[in-house]
Amino acid sequence: MTDNEALSELSPQTLSLSVLLPIIVASALLASAFLFFFCRCIALRRRKARQLAEMTPAASKTRSMSVIRADQPIQFVVPTIPVYSETAEDSFSESESSVNRYSLSEGEDHLRRKSIIDRLYIDPTELEQALYKADPGRGSSDTGTGRISFSLHYNILCQQLYVRLNSAMDLTSNNSKHVTSPFAKVALTSEKSLKFVTKVHKKTANPVFDESFVFNVTVERLVNEAVKITIWDYDRFSRKVLIGQIIYPLINSGIDSEISEDVKTNDILCDLQPKAQRVHHNGELLLTLSYNPGTAVLTLGVLKARIIPTEDKERGTAVYVKVSLYVRNKLVRTKKTCSKKKTPDVEFSDSFNIQLPQSALSAVDIVVSLCDKAAFGGKRVIGRTQVGTHCLTDHGIQHWQDMLSSPKSTSAQWHKLKV
Q1: How many Cβ atoms sit within 10 Å of the Cβ of residue 175?
Q2: Most Cβ neighbours (<10 Å): which of 8, 68, 165, 373?
């Protein structure tokens, strides 16, 4: 019998078993390997969790927080202000001060404060006075901002004024940068819209502008005309900083309405002047102050307001007063009066009661602001005033002292509002 005849005699069932058997064995091996690795991963995870639990101490049970009840509203109370003796230093840190006050006896506390103050005391004779003297070589002008050089030429035929800006010297700025990047603006005081701007000179305190500007000015206007030149410090990523300015009347250079020919001036050298901080008084507020030591209540009354009308377009149709309480230069609370119709004379007749211990009066300042608002929600501060021991106005300090000198009595005073 040949081999072909023997294979032909094998049944189909035998052939199918010989093919499926290796597949079944391979599947069983793969399933066993997968099950082995799955069980191993679970065992490793449980072992790590057990080790972590053994290393971490058991947390103590915390008390459950009480729930805020609806029938008990939240009350806002001015925080207690600790006031110490006059000989004590004004606390180097709050935590250290509180520990010293309550964990040490009175004698030990006094000695510890004295030792700290002695360590912080600086003998004036140990200071190097040369480090605190101004540098005489920095800026030669009296104002310390620099000088500017320019010349003028008036053409009577064309009725044109030529302003030639030559250069600037020894420029110093209040900006944090060490070297300025100045540019200039040239205009006439009577011209609101026409203004010329020079190019920026990077990183120099002595820029050479060498630029000319032309203004149309009639002869009749020369007597009251003046040239305004402002020098600015340029910064690409922040607002521009004003270095200084000059306002030079044309009559000082011989250019006036009586000239009959062209006038040319030599180089004019002027010191730059810092921009004056103008303080506007936009009205007054009539305030009352009283303090009752028995009840420890400070009462601030806002009675009337006088509003000075201004030329600009006032958008506000109603006014109100906002009272801000500061304790050690930190805002504690703010309250407002009811809104009133905006008129030159407004009556508020409102008062604010502040629960305050007598020992904390020296740490309190009150800022009173008169504000207006439009019908569609726009708000603006008309002016502010202040009362307290550390306020910046003489009226506020005097009013506060009058209240302290006469307790249980009401002291009234008008306060000018400043922007």
Answers
A1: 17
A2: 165
- Of 267, 225, 217, the closest CA to residue 248 belongs to 225
For residues 220 and 255, the answer to whether their CB atoms sit within 8 Å is no
Give the residue ranges of DSSP H helices in 81-219: 94-103, 106-120
Alpha-carbon distance of 44 to 52, in angstroms, equals 12
Q: For residues 283 and 307, give the distance between their C-alpha atoms in angstroms, rounded to a whole number.
A: 4
Pick from 275, 377, 361: nearest CA to 325: 361
CB 316 within 8 A of CB 326: no
The CB density around residue 226, as the number of other CB atoms within 10 Å, is 15
pTM score of the predicted model: 0.38
The residue type at 380: R
Tell me the three state secondary structure of residue 147. strand
Nearest to 243 by CA among 217, 271, 264: 271
Q: Inter-axis angle of helices 94-103 and 106-120, to 10 degrees?
A: 150
Take residue 257 and report the two structure tokens written for it. Answer: 């309405």
Per-residue pLDDT of the chain (419 residues; tens, 9 = 90+): 555 555 455 566 666 777 788 888 888 899 999 999 899 899 888 888 887 777 655 544 444 444 444 444 434 444 444 433 333 333 333 333 333 333 344 444 545 554 444 544 455 455 444 444 444 333 334 345 789 999 999 999 999 999 999 999 988 876 555 678 899 999 998 887 788 999 999 888 899 999 999 999 998 888 888 999 999 988 766 667 888 899 999 888 888 888 888 999 999 999 988 865 554 567 889 999 999 888 889 999 999 998 876 655 556 788 899 999 988 888 888 999 998 888 888 999 899 998 888 888 888 889 999 988 876 667 888 888 999 877 777 778 889 888 888 887 888 889 988 87
Structure tokens at 244: 């200084």
* Lookup: tokens for 67: 């729930």
Could you tell me which residues are beta bridge partners of residue 384? 369, 418
Tokens coding 310 = 């201004």
Q: How far is CA 107 from CA 101, 301, 312, 395, in A?
A: 11, 44, 64, 42
- Judge whether 308 and 322 are in contact, CB under 8 Å: no
- Joined together, the tokens standing for residue 220 give 């009749």
Pair 373, 315: CB distance under 8 Å: no
Tokens of 264: 């040319």
